[in-house]
Amino acid sequence: MASGASKSAAIAFLIVNTLLYGIITIIASWAVNHGIERSQETASVLSIPARIFPIFFPIGNMATGFFIIFSLIAGVVGMVTSIISIINVIQWNASNQHAAAASSLISLLLTLLAMGLACKEIKMGWSDSNLRTLETLTIIVSGSQLLTVGTIQAGIGTVEQERLRTRGRF
What we know:
The protein is mainly α. The chain is elongated.
């Protein structure tokens, strides 16, 4: 990949990821707020083990609580690391590229964890339409984040080759 092509592709992916992570954060925040407001009235009719379950949500199934919490964490961390990575990729030197790669990798790992919980929730069945949207966006952004990490790694390769060509090995 040419240096300019990987830089523009990385910036484009990072902008898309920032928007997707923002939407994920908004939907997950709504779900947490909805769960806090409605869990008292809904959990009071459940049997005793489910009533004392600490992460109970009145929408979805028993995997919903974990999925919403992890997607909220992944959304916030992903949005922040995407913004920071945009700044690092714009500067386009080796140290900033490595910082962008590290933060994008952390964001990818958290998103993959949330994606695994989304797949578990889909497997268990019965989700509200807002949760289905959150599940779909989490799966989409995990693929997009994987491509972002790949383009940033390609950019690291081109920056390192350019550094070795102009300055020598040491």
